[in-house]
Amino acid sequence: xxxxxxxxxxxxxxxxxxxxxxxxxxxxxxxxxxxxxxxxxxxxxxxxxxxxxxxxxxxxxxxxxxxxxxxxxxxxxxxxxxxxxxxxxxxxxxxxxxxxxxxxxxxxxxxxxxxxxxxxxxxxxxxxxxxxxxxxxxxxxxxxxxxxxxxxxxxxxxxxxxxxxxxxxxxxxxxxxxxxxxxxxxxxxxxxxxxxxxxxxxxxxxxxxxxxxxxxxxxxxxxxxxxxxxxxxxxxxxxxxxxxxxxxxxxxxxxxxxxxxxxxxxxxx
Amino acid sequence: xxxxxxxxxxxxxxxxxxxxxxxxxxxxxxxxxxxxxxxxxxxxxxxxxxxxxxxxxxxxxxxxxxxxxxxxxxxxxxxxxxxxxxxxxxxxxxxxxxxxxxxxxxxxxxxxxxxxxxxxxxxxxxxxxxxxxxxxxxxxxxxxxxxxxxxxxxxxxxxxxxxxxxxxxxxxxxxxxxxxxxxxxxxxxxxxxxxxxxxxxxxxxxxxxxxxxxxxxxxxxxxxxxxxxxxxxxxxxxxxxxxxxxxxxxxxxxxxxxxxxxxxxxxx
Lengths: 269, 268
Known about the structure:
The complex is a heterodimer of chains A (269) and B (268). With 269 residues, chain A is mainly alpha-helical. Chain A has helices at residues 2-13, 15-29, 38-59, 70-102, 111-137, 146-173, 177-191, 204-211, 214-228, 232-235, 237-262, 265-268, and strands at residues 64-65, 68-69. The longest helix of chain A has 33 residues, at 70-102. Chain A starts with a helix and ends with a helix. The relative contact order of chain A is 0.14. By secondary structure, chain B is α/β, with parallel strands linked by helices. Chain B has a domain at 52-72 and 162-262: P-loop containing nucleotide triphosphate hydrolases (Rossmann fold), CATH 3.40.50. In chain B, strands 5-6-7-3-8-9 form a 6-stranded mixed β-sheet, sandwiched between helices. The radius of gyration of chain B is 21 Å and the shape is globular. The termini of chain B are far apart. Chain A binds chain B through residues 16-17, 20-21, 24, 27-28, 31-32, 100-108, 174, 263-264, 266-267, and chain B through 14, 27, 71-75, 88-89, 91, 94-95, 97, 99-100, 104, 107-108, 111-114, 116-117, 140. Chain A: Residues 35-264 form the ABC transmembrane type-2 domain. Chain A: InterPro entries: ABC2_TM, ABC2_TM_bact-type. Chain A: This is Transport permease protein. Chain A: GO terms for molecular function: ABC-type transporter activity. Chain A: Keywords: Cell membrane, Membrane, Transmembrane, Transmembrane helix, Transport.
């Protein structure tokens, strides 16, 4: 518990550093491209267009989900997925890749994953902004429910941070964890209602089991805020409580693991 | 004077494995596989405030391991290092990014060193001035020569103002004029009564700069004392060592290495 509080304190006191380092990271990543930061948005946008063509036009035609055309439904959810997927994959590598850079300084090591995530978060914000514009054009006007979107954006960030705090530590100790994470994320992608949602046909118990997947809550939260205009987080308060509880547990495990190994990172790298 | 760094029976053990299999085995059943290597073996000494301590010894003797432990970069396996005050390692090449320009690197490395926004704004002009890079400061660091890169790194590192400073081969950067300038900066630290640990193979520099010497041999402290005494002995040793035949040198190295290795269960 003490480790948890320390991590939170460290994150808050390093807020400025995280923002600046994230900006530098984006610069470093995109230094050699003429379009620079635009690629951070363009890449997922192109991928979305692919999904749109394959699943929206090809396989599903003009079907709707609760009155919203499939393609909008998919766009809202998948934007969240692109962010968390990238944030977790890159964030997990953060400590073992960047450790040598900061080894000789008194650097708060839990900041390494968080600034990587923050860099990806900037791209995510731009992407969500772009999607919003598309939705406005298509007649989904801005609403009071955008307030809820801020809540879900923040929650995606915190969720990604809680996972990477744990995985970035484990990856240092056992490098294979990185491979495992990749596979698990791929599995989660198909278990979550991101590309499709057929759970309506599933038996009751399986439906409630699938709802325990945090991506389920987050994806539906984005959709509720951008398209369906309802207070998803309040209407499904049990899920809200459950997900925050889950994040808290992961954070506590992650921070105690991080502190347990922090002094010995140099032995493992 | 008050003691500023106390090193108490400090050891650093590394586990050595011959294969990945041994490494996993050791993770699952600690102590069953692999062997130990004592990089540092029971070193104790105390340093007073304002002391400039040179760490000398032949390659692989454990100087860098010891200086890294004093700097808090790696934890000792056993024993204790008590440092009274803030410790900082002058790491010239750490924390520079090749993709960024010189001026961006200044902010980048300062951020990594934990400076606040105000402090960064304050030190940036000083760094630009001290680094002598001129207009190159706006070029990406990947276009720098190694000397220019070191100059930049050094200029950033010395803006830190800790109580205890660890310098590992940092003063041999750049050309002679820059080396002199760096040494002058270090002397300024010395005058202000900072405790300095200085690792170098440049014996002339060590002799002129340090007032105490810790001579490390094969992971152990061979001698610790005032510069003139220890340096004389060390120089004698080096002369003698150089006179030895190649085989005798090898035998000497092996003797030291065997002393540091154990737990390999006669695997030869």
